[in-house]
Design goal:
The complex is a heterodimer. By secondary structure, chain A is an all-alpha fold. Chain A has 2 domains: about 70 residues; about 60 residues, no CATH class. In chain A, about 70% of the residues lie in helices and about 0% in strands. The longest helix of chain A has 29 residues. Chain A is rod-shaped, with a radius of gyration of 26 Å. Chain B has one domain: Trafficking protein particle complex subunit 3 (Muramoyl-pentapeptide Carboxypeptidase, domain 2), CATH 3.30.1380.20. Chain B is globular. The chains are: A mainly alpha, B alpha+beta. Chains A and B meet through helix 3 of A and helix 4, strand 1 and strand 2 of B.
Chain lengths: ~140, ~180
């Protein structure tokens, strides 16, 4: 194999290797005068993947430490779609929790699997607990 | 009722008729396909006839009218904003319009970030790079304005059509 081809293969493989090894992948660089051929096109795709991967790795890290405010760049990868859905659900849960904290126990969460079950159970228990507190106070007033 | 010329909207909820009476065998529900067939074909012809901007304006205004009528005729819990949102959440689920979730709601500034998952208009569409839920934008504005008695503007910022998997709307009061 020609050394130039070998060199390109090493360059293209590097970011994949970095991702698998838990490192931040770097973009593949081609010289400016490199021919505009299929190799350059493939490098373009790989670099696009690397950028989106890095963006979503940062976003996932933010999410993992409870920061829900960041807006990742738009992308078509399925992982991007799932990230945005997860972020939206967490924001929604946060808002629902804030309403309960403000005394509104009549809150439900739908279609979020185990989250829904646990949250709705907590919400009902809070309602029951709150009604038990109110009843004795009412009795005192009488 | 349906064919009169008009300068102001004449829609009334009673115009929907008695569906139980009218469809004793087929019932009151149909499929999302049928809904989208009507809406997308209507959009197509409207754009051809009046252009994209005007078509979107028409869909938005229609959605706003529908949202206001929905509030007046279907929503029952209007004592507080939270009760109102909970009721709408429940109704949209029951009527299979979408799964409504609130991400943020500033009751002082009257700004809201609302998400609708499994949206009736767009869920499952191929990605086209566009936000397309114009009717829903108006619908949400109508719901909020009917409750608050203030004019709202709602803009869809994320959509299945633009490559996301949820429809996110930013709404704010302008009066």
């Amino acid at each position: 194999m020609m050394s130039e081809e070998k060199n390109i293969i090493v360059k293209i493989t590097e970011p994949i290797y970095q991702i698998l090894e838990g490192k931040t992948p770097s973009l593949v660089e081609l010289s400016e005068d490199y021919t505009d051929n299929e190799v350059r096109q493939r490098v373009g795709y790989i670099n696009r993947f690397v950028k989106e991967y890095n963006d979503y790795a940062e976003s996932m890290h933010s999410l993992s430490i409870g920061e829900l405010g960041m807006t990742p760049s738009k992308g078509k990868m399925r992982v991007a779609h799932s990230f945005k859905s997860l972020q939206s659900n967490l924001r929604h849960l946060t808002w629902k929790t804030q309403q309960i904290a403000n005394g509104d126990f009549n809150q439900e969460v739908d279609f979020m699997g185990d989250f829904s079950k646990a949250f709705n159970k907590m919400s009902i228990l809070k309602l029951i607990e709150n009604s038990k507190l109110i009843t004795p106070l009412f009795m005192l007033d009488c | 009722m349906f064919n009169e010329e008009r300068d102001e909207c004449k829609f009334d909820w009673s115009m929907l008729g008695n569906i139980e009476d009218g469809r004793p065998n087929l019932g009151a529900t149909t499929s999302v396909t049928v809904y989208r067939l009507m809406q997308f074909c209507l959009r197509d012809v409207l754009i051809r006839e009046v252009g994209v901007a005007k078509a979107n304006e028409i869909f938005y205004d229609a959605g706003e009218l529908a949202g206001q009528a929905f509030c007046r005729n279907i929503v029952t819990k209007k004592d507080s904003l939270n009760d109102y949102i909970n009721d709408i959440q429940h109704l949209l689920k029951e009527l299979k319009i979408g799964i409504l979730k609130v991400e943020s709601a500033d009751k002082e500034k009257l700004t809201f970030t609302i998400v609708v998952a499994e949206d009736l208009d767009c869920s499952g569409l191929p990605t086209c790079g566009e936000e397309i839920c114009t009717f829903d934008e108006g619908f949400i504005s109508g719901l909020l304005s009917a409750f608050s008695k203030k004019k709202f503007i709602t803009k869809e910022v994320d959509c299945w059509g633009s490559g996301d998997r949820i429809c996110r709307f930013e709404a704010r009061a302008v009066s």
